[in-house]
Structures are given as structure tokens and as C-alpha cells.
Amino acid sequence: MIANLPRVTAYVVAAILAALVCAPASGVAAAQLPIAGPSVVGYWQGRLNIPGGGGLTIGLNIRAELNGSLAATLDSPDQGAMGIPASAVSVAGGIVRVEVSSIGGAFEGALSSAGTEIVGTWRGESICIDRKVAPACTDEVVVFEFRRSPKPGTVSLQADKIVNGERRKMGELEFAWDAGEGCWRSEFETPRTHGYWCLVVDGREVTGTLRTLPERAQVRRLSVRRD
Description:
single chain, 227 residues, mainly beta, 2 domains, 4-stranded antiparallel sheet, 53% strand
């Protein structure tokens, strides 16, 4: 219930907005929103550390209205409180602020330099789509773990696949936001393959493709969802 939520007026909760930043939702043009590049529209989740000890999982569902303004609802799943309307949402100078007057709360955080990040564990499928170009390709059930990287504007990926019910490591990659392609991009080269991944966040789903270089032929399609 709303009455049981902790009072956090003027308490800065950077973790909420740093935990997950989403690319523009389908059908919403970034130009309609008050920031350039990937929008703040989507589901953002993080951990609220309460003064005096303890913590709560907090989620913010931010959407774009038809007039181009932003609206949001607050979730506190640990307390069973979902869909609490925000009274104000603003983006200025790379700072996102969400006010929830019904609980006396103000949540604030800074966008990354890239404007969007993928952080967390994602599970799904990596499917072969052109075995003429990549005859050794096999369909895989995958687990992708994205972590923050010390290098600004990048994230690191630990990629695993599921074989006989067990996780097996495939490798690590570094991704950076590519504004030109509108995706998180990682180029790599092995003795057998030279290619790059291009991944897009849409709410709680990441989709993307693996292309060979220099041909740019699509050989894999990825679809994973956040745990």
C-alpha cells in the first residue's frame, strides 16, 4: 500500500536510473522528447538504499504522451505496490527527475554519456539465419550478462550458452553505443569470423543481429529478455 512506502523526499536515488536505460519505445520518435538520442521511455529498475539500513527494489515505467511530454508510474514490488502515478517527470541537462507527490518521493539520476545502457542478465535465443555464409553456425539458447565497464560509454558482456542444462562460457565482448546505427555495437575478430553485433533495447527485451565483415551479411538473430 502507498501508505507503507518509505518517505524519501529530496533523496537522490541514482541507482534507479543508472540500473537500466532503455532505447525509444516502438512508434515513439526521439525528436518528440526533451533529450537527443535514445529516449528515457521504457522500464528502469534499481535498488533504493534506505537511510538506517535495508533496501527496496524500485521500478519506474516512463512513457511518452501524445503531446510529447513524459509521464511515469512507480513500482515497489517488494511491498506489493505497483503503478503509483508520478506527479512530474523532467529531463534537463542529462538529469532525469521523477516526482511522486503521493508518497513524498523524488527520484533523480544522470543519463550515461551514451544515453542508454544495457545492464543485467538476459536470456533467450541466438538463431542462425544464413548457413550459406556461416555453415558451422548452430542455434543456441544463451545467457547474456552485461556489466558496467570502467571505460566511459561502454559495457562488457559475458556470453554463455546452455548445453544439456548447463551454462558454458562463450566469451567476453565490449559494447559501445553507436549513434549512427542506433544500437550497442561490438566488433570482434577470431580465426574463423570477423563481424559485429548490433543490439537494441526495447523495454525488457534486447534484439539484434550478428553481421560478417566486410560483407555485412546477417548470420545470427538475437532475442533475449531481462531476468
